[in-house]
What we know:
The protein contains nine helices and seven strands. It is α/β, with parallel strands linked by helices. It has one domain: 3-Layer(aba) Sandwich (Rossmann fold). A seven-stranded parallel β-sheet has the order 3-2-1-4-5-6-7, sandwiched between helices. The site of NADP nicotinamide-adenine-dinucleotide phosphate has 30 residues, from helix 2, helix 5 and helix 7. Keywords: Oxidoreductase. This is NADP-dependent 3-hydroxy acid dehydrogenase YdfG.
Amino acid sequence: MSQVMADTDDERSGGDLRGRTAVLIGGGSGIGLRVAHRVVAAGGRVVLGGRTASRLSAAAKELGDAAEWCTVDTGDLDSLAAFFDGLAHVDHLFTTAASYRVGPMRELSAAEAASPFESKFWGQYHAVRLAAPKLAEDGSVVLMSGAASARPAGLAPAYVACNAAIEGLGRGLAVELAPVRVNVVSPGTVDGHLWSNRPDTVRQAAFEQYRRETLLGRPATEDEIAHAVVYLFTNTFTTGSTLYPDGGYTLR
Length: 252
Ligand SMILES: NC(=O)c1ccc[n+]([C@@H]2O[C@H](COP(=O)([O-])OP(=O)(O)OC[C@H]3O[C@@H](n4cnc5c(N)ncnc54)[C@H](OP(=O)(O)O)[C@@H]3O)[C@@H](O)[C@H]2O)c1
């Protein structure tokens, strides 16, 4: 491990992550894994969390010596507490881990409607709560939201509200945890791992709608979102912000 660290705010804002550890829960795939690649390329280390050991170990192998992993379920408080007990120090935290149902109010059961809040909102809330004692004063948290908060894509009011709540949580935590910086990334539709696991017809209809309805005419890549996350990790004067890497979706 490199002992060299970026010392000044200007070096850190320049994207230097030498000597820094980013904890990426959900980092075994998708956007989290792309963030891991960017952190390692910038000289940092990563700790990957997720529920599936084989996925995490394959991702860590891809990343090399700068990566460690540990299984964790963000829906289980004991599991989350054990995960953070095992960590000495956290410089940056980003949690893409979430499992939920999305759909119209008239169709979802009460438990399905609550699932984005249960998993995506409370999962991230408790991850930050348990990480807080170990967070470096000059470190940061990036919360994962989704641009549906600002412009609903389909019939999914509880999911829309959950994302809006996460953006509010980011502002509230920025105040409580300062000088630790807390920001939110709120992507539009991303052509990557999450959508590749949905039925072809559903994915194609969603991507077609996104091409029509966003200014840049296409979904994002996972790496474009990862770039925004690493910006939020490293810009030393950004806190309480929500960044929308959405190709202009929320403007149309
Ligand atoms: N992709 C998009 O279009 C898009 C757009 C806007 C927002 N988002 C948000 O991005 C997040 C998903 O990230 P992604 O797109 O990169 O998808 P992804 O590749 O499916 O990543 C989710 C990761 O989280 C892990 N995970 C799921 N539930 C977990 C739990 N309870 N505890 C621990 N780990 C868990 C999964 O691994 P295991 O199953 O092995 O645990 C997986 O590695 C969600 O919050 C989603 O709302 C995505």
